[in-house]
Amino acid sequence: MGRCSKPCISESMHNILKGYGIILVILILNFKKKGALNVIELNKVSMLYPGTKDPALEEMSLKLNSGEFLFLVGPSGAGKSTLINLLFREKLPTRGGIYFDNKDISAYKKEEILQHRRRIGMVFQDYKLIKQKTVFENVAFALEVLGYSPKEIRIKVPEALKKVGLSHKEKAFPKELSGGEQQRVGIARAIVKDPDLILADEPTGNLDRDNGLQLMELFEKINQEGTTVVIATHAWDLVDRMQKRVVALAGGKLERDEKGGYDHE
Ligand SMILES: Nc1ncnc2c1ncn2[C@@H]1O[C@H](COP(=O)(O)OP(=O)(O)OP(=O)(O)O)[C@@H](O)[C@H]1O
Ligand SMILES: [Mg+2]
Q1: d(C-alpha 8, C-alpha 196), whole Å
Q2: What's the confidence (pLDDT) of residue 8?
Q3: Of 76, 173, 208, 261, which residue has the fewest beta carbons closer than 10 angstroms?
């Protein structure tokens, strides 16, 4: 007994502290997972489509921190979709740099581009659901192409559908859903892969005001859980209502960047 009382105490203390240390690391890693995307930065980005005279974007600089909610507004042709496509690495800028976590995404090779897109959930105006697949299958498909196992799919798809309030429509086909419901499937498909960033281009463009508002509130909920959200929209009334950061473009240039409303005069 005398032989081990002190060392035993310090040894068990050591083990307890080691245990806490491991738990702490797990907690930090979990926290990091949601906040994994630190910052998006555009540095003097210009985009001139081949065969056009005027740039779709001109010397655009912008910084977006992890967990932000941003509306992109501006008249038709202002450059909103171009910016969304550049962020998805669908297109390359003519000049300037786009950085995710300080990495220039223009320099990405094929595998890095795929990795990059895996971190992003896209939501489209026309939903882009597969007609022949059920709601469950549409959402599952987003995971299948990323190589998730059937077991993971059976867990993750119902979770995503629950978040968007469509658990009861798992077996329905897109044509059996309202526009608002179809777009909620589109959102479930975007969030099912736990993205760091949601990019939505006119997500409420085909919906009435009430459905549009419900969707914006859903985006807000997703954002509150840690996902960065960027939404290009013309829906000035919804932008006014949400009171988030608004970046206004006009003729490819950044015109305004502040928290508040659409400023639709
Ligand atoms: N693939 C393309 N080829 C040539 N020009 C293009 C292409 N895509 C967009 N443009 C031009 O780039 C400019 C910006 O277009 P963009 O689609 O980004 O605008 P937007 O703000 O999304 O407009 P909207 O509100 O109508 O969706 C426009 O002048 C458009 O004509
Ligand atoms: Mg557009």
Answers
A1: 46
A2: 53
A3: 76
52 CB within 6 A, ligand 1:
yes
78 within ligand 1 shell (Cβ under 6 A): yes
The CA distance from 247 to 232, in Å, is 9
The number of angstroms, rounded, from the C-alpha of 109 to the middle of its chain's C-alpha atoms is: 22
Residues less than 5 Å from ion ligand 2, measured at CB: 80-81
Ligand 1 centre and the CA of 261: distance in Å? 23
| Count of residues making up the chain | 265
Does the beta carbon of 125 sit less than 6 angstroms from any atom of ligand 1? no
Atom of ligand 1 at shortest range from CA of 234: 25
Q: What is the pLDDT of residue 263?
A: 81
- The dihedral built from the CA positions of residue 27, 29, 30 and 35, taken in this order, carries a sign that is positive
Token pair recorded at residue 114: 């795929």
For domain 66-95+108-260, the CATH architecture is 3-Layer(aba) Sandwich (3.40)
* Chunked mean pLDDT (size 10), the chain, 265 residues: 51 67 55 63 97 97 97 97 97 97 96 95 96 98 95 98 97 97 97 97 95 96 96 96 97 96 74
Of ligand 1's atoms, which has the minimum distance to the CA of residue 79? Answer: 18
Atom of ligand 1 nearest to the CA of 249: 21
Q: For residue 2, what pLDDT is reported?
A: 43
> How many angstroms separate the Cα of 36 from the Cα of each of 103, 133, 227, 229, 244?
13, 32, 10, 14, 22
Say if ligand 1 is within 6 A of residue 76 CB.
yes
